[in-house]
């Protein structure tokens, strides 16, 4: 967010969009990490792996709500700016994906290097 504000001189809406998109992507990575951690091939686990596939169109729709409102013919400004997010251009998407990839690799590396640091609970209790 500091790079967005100081280097790119983005407005608060774009900064908010960058932070929210990064957090959503990291949340999906955390979901996959949690499901991979000792989980069997249960039906609900396999269904939860599809959450990002469904969530990506929702995230893109929230970012492009003004375009969707134009397509639907909605003129109400309250509806058009409900989430107060801006659509990200390819350069901003590359930045978000790069930050997410670096953070994800640190998390996965930590999982491999420090397996004893996290006390694993027993399921079903």
Please describe the topology of this protein.
Layout: H1 2-7, H2 12-36, H3 43-48, H4 51-63, H5 65-72, H6 77-80, H7 90-113
Helix pairs in contact: 2-4, 2-7
In short:
It is built from 7 helices and no strands.
Description:
With 125 residues, this protein is mostly helical. It has one domain (12-108). Helix content is 69%, strand content 0%. Helix 2 runs antiparallel to helix 4 (51-63) and helix 2 packs parallel to helix 7 (90-113). The longest helix has 25 residues, at 12-36. The radius of gyration is 18 Å and the shape is flat.
Number of strands: 0
Mean pLDDT: 81
Radius of gyration using CA atoms only? 18 Å
The helicity comes to 55-70%
Number of helices: 7
Characterize the largest beta sheet: strand count, sense, and whether it forms a barrel.
none
Keywords:
125 residues, mainly alpha, 7 helices
